[in-house]
Design brief:
Oligomer: single chain
Largest sheet: 5 strands, mixed
Shape: globular
Bound molecules: 5'-O-[(R)-(carboxyoxy)(hydroxy)phosphoryl]adenosine, zinc ion
Number of strands: 10
Number of helices: 10
Strand content: 15-25%
Length: 345
Amino acid sequence: MAKPIIALGIESSCDDTSASIVTSDKKILSNIVLSQVAEHAPYKGVVPEIAARAHMNYMEHAIQSALHEAGLTLNDIDIIGATGGPGLIGGVIVGTMFGKSLSYALNKPYIAVNHLEGHLLAARMFNDIQYPFLTLLVSGGHAQFIAAFEHGKYQILGQTLDDAPGEAFDKLAKMLDIGFPGGPLVEKHALKGDATKYELPITLRARKDCDLSFSGLKTAARLVIEKNDKHNPQFIADICASFQHTATEILQSKSKNAMSAFADIIGKQEYSFVLSGGVAANKILRAKMEDVCTANQCQLFVPPIQYCTDNAAMIAWAAIENYQLEFTSNLNFCPRPNWPLSEPQ
Ligand code: KG4
Ligand code: ZN
């Protein structure tokens, strides 16, 4: 049997400095994620300049730690994958430069990985998911229904017309002053809240397409907050629960549309549905999507929580999938802060 390929993955598109070693036989030998939450918390959001400097300061340590935890040295690495976009340009430049420099010094292939493809393929590290499959990618910057017909052949069936859901969770947390990043904190407060207490809009519900919108939900939540005492813990719990419930309803209702559109395109009802991206870490959303998938005869796959939010393991894995199909990058690859998934390098 051929020796498995060993990939070093590098991720630096937002506020996590991450390095990971993954093998082509799906072993995650290490996945170091150095969060920058402490740096950004005073500003209640990610500050691009601070993120770029932090990636510069932490990346070498992240890579050394990933190698150490895997019990390997740089000489054992077969390929290097680094996020080449989309993301905050400063961070993407840092990761790209590390990736290219290591590739040049070690004389090993370099793969510029599209961050969205990293999220899209992450679930395939844990399960044997066959093409074609349908993905709902929900993160701090994106919300897209993606039809994946084969590797690299992706079609966006619908996407957000305004905010991404993670961004909306983060803004709610900011309005309530409960900390950063918002998603996990809103989820925590919602545990003690009444999800039916405040009726918030299920945006674009009447439309039969697959587009999404979260800005109306965010504005409606702001109007409720303005009329209430945002320091009252029960109010915080109730608005968090109502918001999470409504955001989930929006995603459920649009998933039904996307499922029927996808079934029509591929001409069959049974297929895999992948939920991915940082917001897929939300336990209510995971549970509700299970219900939608069961009702629509498709099988739901969601990566383990730590592989939903940004991590370099998914970048290493996407690099492996690309390399196996002979997609590698030149060292003149230019970081792409706006890199649509449907476009090749
Ligand atoms: O995928 P990700 O780590 O970074 C991007 O590519 O954007 O996603 C981060 C987003 C943040 O907006 C964060 O608040 C949200 O995912 N998030 C959550 C949860 N965990 C992270 N949203 C809702 N519930 C969660 N448990
Ligand atoms: Zn991400």
